Amino acid sequence: MMSRRHLHETDKIGPCVIQLQQMRPRVRAHGRNNMSSKKILIVEDERPIREMIAFGLKRAGFEVREAEDSRTARAALADRRPDLILIDWMLPDTSGLELTRSLKRERDTRDLPVIMLTARAEEGDKVAGLDGGADDYMTKPFSPRELVARVNAVLRRSGGPDENERVQFDDLSLDRAGHRVMVGERTVPLGPTEYRLLEFFMTHPERVYSREQLLDRVWGGNVYVEERTIDVHVRRLRKALEDFRYDRLVQTVRGAGYRFSARAEG
């Protein structure tokens, strides 16, 4: 059984062997990663490598889920969408390259950042991975420090809002760190589900989402909720925003779903 030792920033995560150095306990002088709480899905069939990657990312403040093959990765994606996915090239059911290509072809996952992990170091393999849709390409062995730096860089480039950012529309402000919604100096009273729904809408404006998509993105794929329940929460959200004259932003698109938009409904 693998011992639970701390990863050193110069240790290498390799294709077959993980080499670790024993460390004395030490106080971390720097603050937490500003990408903390971002969700990362690791798709890697070799368990020791997968666990050590997960350990390094968790230590950096990320929320991590693991999958051993493409099928398990698909189930994890349906359950809860991550902010970034790490995919090993060599998977037992289908290649990581094929998984990446299929994710980039699908509407719901084509904007999901992907970093490909592989022992293939040839230029042609790197080109194939990047052409297949990967946002970055890391050759094993690599250090946990480099992996965290690459993950942070790709997340910054992807343009997704940071968990501590304030999302603003006119005077309507959603404070993600404080978990509150304000209009000017007034607090908008929202239940937890209405808050998550508004957070999703405000960070994904001007696009129509079906009830099924909202279930997956806001509730998660393993939670049993009838689609019509979404209508109830949308009505509650509109009611809460009505006193502030922002209920018009949450629009119904007949036969399609809902969108958050400042434009007139039509």
Written account of the structure:
The chain is of the alpha/beta class and 266 residues long. It folds into 2 domains: 39-158, 3-Layer(aba) Sandwich (Rossmann fold), CATH 3.40.50; 166-260, Arc Repressor Mutant, subunit A (Orthogonal Bundle). Helix content is 35%, strand content 17%. The strands form 3 sheets. A 5-stranded parallel β-sheet has the order 2-1-3-4-5, sandwiched between helices. Strands 6-7-8-9 form a 4-stranded antiparallel β-sheet, with helices on one face. The longest helix has 16 residues, at 227-242. The radius of gyration is 21 Å and the shape is elongated.
List the helices and strands and how they pair.
Blueprint: E1 39-43, H1 47-59, E2 63-67, H2 70-79, E3 84-88, H3 96-105, E4 114-118, H4 123-131, E5 136-139, H5 144-158, E6 166-169, E7 172-175, E8 180-183, E9 186-187, H6 192-203, H7 211-219, H8 227-242, E10 250-253, E11 257-260
Parallel strand pairs: 1-2, 1-3, 3-4, 4-5
Antiparallel strand pairs: 6-7, 7-8, 8-9, 10-11
Helix pairs in contact: 6-7, 6-8, 7-8
* Inertia-based shape: elongated
Order of helices and strands: EHEHEHEHEHEEEEHHHEE
Query: What structural class results from the helix and strand content?
Result: alpha/beta
Largest sheet: 5 strands, parallel
Helix content: 25-40%
Strand order of the largest sheet: 2-1-3-4-5
Q: At the first level of CATH, what is the class of the largest domain?
A: Alpha Beta
Quaternary organization: single chain
Mean pLDDT: 81
According to CATH, the fold-level topology of the largest domain is Rossmann fold
> How many domains comprise the coordinates?
2
Question: Span from first to last CA?
Answer: 61 Å
Low-confidence stretches: 1-10, 15-34
